[in-house]
Amino acid sequence: MTTPDPVPPAQRITPCNLARIAEGEAGGASIWGSESAARQAQVHVMWVVMNRLRHAAYAPPYDALSDFYGAELIEQPDAKTIQLALGVLYADPKDDPTGGCLFVLSQQDRVKLGVRDGDLILIGKGPFSLHLFRNWPG
Q: Which of 68, 72, 78, 137 has CA atoms 20 to 30 A from the CA of 13?
């Protein structure tokens, strides 16, 4: 359920923190096989964050940065990821490539939790993949 938020999502997270989440959760080219594939995965993670910030269940004081553990691994994201974050922050929600997904799990976490495949799956190198879900799969 998406409802208008009195505080727009772009005012609830900085481009730097959105980029930190994306890099921490999606990783880089070594996981995806190329920089363009890594950037696509990072953008998908950014949209999951933005979808949460637009969703009524994640109204303020919800803090996206504390909810995505991978962000803790990244102190300063690279400039290209910050540029991508700016684009996603101010993009029209109709441009969402995830179809409204609110959750993202790595293949490893999905298996550990014993949940179904994602509504959208991004396949990386080797065993790595990201599973995006519109609703919590558990």
A: 137
Number of compact structural domains in the chain: 1
> Which residues neighbour 125 within 8 Å (Cβ) at sequence distance 6 or greater?
30, 31, 32, 33
Per-residue pLDDT tens digits of the chain, which is 138 residues long = 555 545 777 788 999 999 999 999 999 999 999 999 999 999 999 999 999 999 988 888 888 888 887 888 888 999 999 999 999 999 999 999 999 999 999 999 999 999 999 999 999 988 899 999 999 998
Continuous segment of H or E residues that includes residue 107: helix 107-113
Give domain status of residue 58, yes or no: yes
The number of beta carbons lying within 10 Å of the beta carbon of residue 16 is: 15
Residue 28 covered by a domain: yes
Domain hosting residue 51, numbered range: 9-100
Task: Judge whether 128 lies within some domain.
Answer: no
Q: Which of 49, 42, 62 is nearest to 93 (CA)?
A: 49
